[in-house]
Amino acid sequence: MKWDAWGDPARAKPLSEDIKGLLAAALGVTGDDASQLTADQVVLRPSALPDEDLKALAAIVGPSQVSTADADRLPRAGGKSTPDLLRRKSREPQDAPDAVVLPAGEEEVAAVLALCAERRIAVVPFGGGTSVVGGVDPIRAGFTAVISLDLRRFDRLHTLDEVSGEAVLGAGLTGPQAEELLAARGYELGHYPQSFRYATIGGFAATRSSGQDSAGYGRFDEMVRGLRVVTPVGTLDLGRAPASAAGPDLRELFLGSEGVFGVITAVRLRVHPLPAVRAYEAWSFPDFATGAAALRAVEQQGTGPTVMRLSDETETAVNLAMTDKIGGAQVTGGCLAVTVFEGTAEQVAARHELTRVALLAAGGTSLGEEPARAWEHGRFDAPYLRDSLLAAGALCETLETATGWAQLEELKTAVTQTLTAALQESGSASLVMCHISHVYPTGASLYFTVVAAQQGDPIEQWAVVKRAVCDTIVANGGTITHHHAIGADHRPWMDQEIGELGVRILRAVKDTVDPAGILNPGKLIP
Ligand SMILES: Cc1cc2nc3c(=O)[nH]c(=O)nc-3n(C[C@H](O)[C@H](O)[C@H](O)COP(=O)(O)OP(=O)(O)OC[C@H]3O[C@@H](n4cnc5c(N)ncnc54)[C@H](O)[C@@H]3O)c2cc1C
């Protein structure tokens, strides 16, 4: 993972002449990146970890598994939101964890937490570092130092129970590592968020992640059967049976706990045999409302696509203007929808046919399989485009929410209007694109991508816009986050999301499992 951009430099996506033309004409973005900073030019705040603490940590994990080197601290200095990336490229001195610690087992995690509680050191659990909400920011909050606790050595497939269809996976496995281990045994998890290539099993659980195949396989939290969590006061092994009436489900407290309650070391997950067959079909709808109603019909009937998503008019149009467009020549406007089906040949044929009938009845026009295959081919590559856009002087960021089907259109309109007005106020025209990629019988998520011109300090420019749009989401009944989580960035809206009593309940849990408050301060709980 690059320290100042997304992923693998070999996959970088330079802007095509078409996109440059579109940016200049629509937004007045004409810049070229003149200020390439190398990692060794970045000035990090010096490590504040006292020598004796460094030695004590080294005694727990081994001297080679703890580092205060800038080269190790820089990649853990934050996540991968647009403000994170802009901050990384800044010539101003930057904050970073004082040390990076890589434990290898639960005993080591427990010993590190005990030491940090005793010596007043904050601990930020670190998976893939793909948080887009400030979830891994090194917030000191009055502690003497802050360490990044990198879980990458928890990298095993512990067990695969083929009879029950469950696998126990180490928290530090990345998406591809986990799928490779399972595929070697003929199984798949089926969790494919756009950050799949770098995010980890522990991070998915800690943030309630949702992948692009959620229509078929569910959100990550729906796949979780059990969790092992090391807290500063003891270790929990949660989730005994496929279902239980033994009081409130404590797994739910740790799913989405964003490293503030404990360190997830292993996750027991529902897995399925690798699908024998895949089928693809793309659709066009005359407008977003018609498309959304069609997706709702499919989801409420339960016809069973694995992937189902719908782009609005702007996202479809922008996609058509790009050289590596997913739409192909057949897409001429309107709103593009993609469906994918997985399973045995019989399952796929039956689900595909039921879905086709519903989509046709709801006003869809089939575009055949090619645009859907093209979408799948490029499904993890969009973040590379953001890097090129930022370098060219554009502001590009995403945000997401969810609401009931009845409120969806109204929320989409309100968010679009706020984004457009707030960016206009900052001095730039904007392109606001939206898609639905996670559907439920009662509602859906809305995922927005915004492109504008950077004006003044782009971090402050976006902060103003983000505050306005979060207020709008909350005022219109949407959730402050459908899958990006709370982190530091959404924390100011958490009390409106769960209420004052809800916040007190979270604080009470925090006081119980982390009395010294060392775990990921400044995140999740207001
Ligand atoms: C380009 C891009 C695309 C994205 N697409 C999606 C998407 O499609 N769907 C989606 O859901 N999200 C998406 N995200 C958000 C992000 O990838 C998810 O939040 C992901 O689940 C985080 O996993 P991670 O391993 O990178 O965790 P990190 O970023 O390392 O950590 C995230 C949070 O979880 C905590 N944490 C991590 N590991 C543990 C652990 N083992 N125990 C306790 N706490 C832990 C951290 O302290 C932090 O609070 C995207 C992000 C980017 C940058």
Automatic annotation (TrEMBL):
One GO MF term: FAD binding
Cofactor(s), names only, from the UniProt record: FAD
InterPro entries reported in the protein's UniProt record: Alkyl-DHAP_Synthase, FAD-bd_oxidored_4_C, FAD-bd_PCMH, FAD-bd_PCMH-like_sf, FAD-bd_PCMH_sub2, FAD-linked_Oxase-like_C, Oxid_FAD_bind_N, Vanillyl_alc_oxidase_C-sub2
Keyword tags: FAD, Flavoprotein
Residues flagged as site, Important for enzyme activity: R309
SUPFAM superfamilies tied to this protein: FAD-binding/transporter-associated domain-like, FAD-linked oxidases, C-terminal domain
Binding site residues for FAD: 125-131, 207-210, 258-264
GO terms (BP aspect): lipid biosynthetic process
Residues forming the catalytic site: Y447 (proton donor/acceptor)
Record flagged with keyword Acyltransferase: no
Binding annotation for substrate: R386
Domain FAD-binding PCMH-type: 93-274
Compositional bias annotation for Basic and acidic residues: 85-94
Pfam families documented for this protein: FAD-oxidase_C, FAD_binding_4
Stretches for region Disordered: 68-97
Entry's family note: Belongs to the FAD-binding oxidoreductase/transferase type 4 family.
PANTHER family: ALKYLDIHYDROXYACETONEPHOSPHATE SYNTHASE, PEROXISOMAL
Protein name as catalogued: Alkyldihydroxyacetonephosphate synthase
Organism phylogeny: Bacteria, Bacillati, Actinomycetota, Actinomycetes, Kitasatosporales
